[in-house]
Design brief:
- There is one protein chain.
- The chain has 4 helices and 22 strands.
- By secondary structure, it is mostly beta strands.
- Strand 8 and strand 9 form a beta hairpin.
- The N terminus is likely disordered.
Amino acid sequence: MAVTRLVALLLLLSASPALAQQSAPPQDPPANEPVNLFGFTFNQSERYKFGGELVTGWSHDGAQAALGFEKQGRVGMAILSLSGRVSNRVRYYVSVNPVSETASRPACGEPDFFFPNDPNLFAGQGPIVKCDEEDGLKRVDTYNTFSLDYITQQGMLREGYIDWGLTNAVALRGGRFILPIGFAPSEVGAATAKDMARITRLNAEANFGVMLAASARRGDRTWFDAGIMAVLGDGNLEKDYDWFYFVNRSLDTNSALTVVASARLQPVRQLDVRAAYKKGYTGSKVERLPSYWASKRNDDALVVSLKVSPAPWISAFGEYANYKWGPSITSGELVGIPTVGPIEKPGYFMGLQLDVPVAGKVRVGGSFTREELSRDDSLIQYLTLNNLHRVSMGKKDRAMIARGFLDLNRLVNIGFFWVDVSNPFPWVSGSWPVAGPVAFSGRQLDRIGLTVTVRTP
């Protein structure tokens, strides 16, 4: 019995209702009604409401095979949330996740391999960066990592913000929150970074800032909402290989504010249309320490999403994205690269999802997704300009993702996934060697795995 209670407590201390990009304001908790969380009863009130979610998984990932770590079982997210109402107009929301493994770590390097996170790339041009012998070769970039999470956190803090209801339809949010860009992973069938589309992964970003949001309701349903945000912008720093000496990823590099506008239209329950636009920068040029890997980068995005649900148990979805990355013109001049415009990175994914009730509160289903996205980014541009490692611009990432699940009362979800990965340059992420007798060859990059998600009521 004691062991059971201990396991239950660990589960409780691990969860969160916020699954992804769309972090909604906390809902009013039932006044004075206790909630049972995995065997423990907690009193709830308008002042505080506990929530949680535990995501665990086992996967085989060919990108991690070079050192024999392709098969891993891990706790991906262990999130506890607390929300409540301070007054009639003011609410708060806080979520923490002690499993913070998303950020890349500096690699110590290995003969015959290229690691884009090797501090030697900017050796002698800035602060001394020690390599991470523990994780540097296994947390390389978004292509080669064992992490199941997809949000870069501020330490253990995932989100922490205050909502101030200016009117019944307009609210102001301030703090650290996940930006509402594109579909959340759960809305298109994904549970972890291993089984989500790359576009969904790129959109998943938490940042510190403010948001002014407005919504319109029809009966008991919100049919339109929109928001405009001003955020620091460095939550997306390393996705374009702007390592910035591997300093704390939540620190502001003082380049400029990033502005985000997002809107969602749902005129009928069967149709969901969204659009988001981001304009800003990540990183900042440091004149006394010129480095391509610590420079000011463009960070623009246009994302348009569509979901059609002709019946409650079936939906078709699609998302188009066009990112503009790469060094700004002044940063490029500082490090001596030709004057080039922003790197265009367009792509899309589309798919079909089933969610069928079979008995009582038991549901089964799955999804199939096809994705195509330009591989171009600052790393590929750098290697192309320097004629390194058989790399060229204009190639594409492609993936096909198949998922299935068994869901019990929306509280326990058991899923499996298979991902067919087509990456034109796996060797630039340390997955294949770039020299030696087997240069530019290696294990298949496909992924397969199981996930278990447990939520609180």
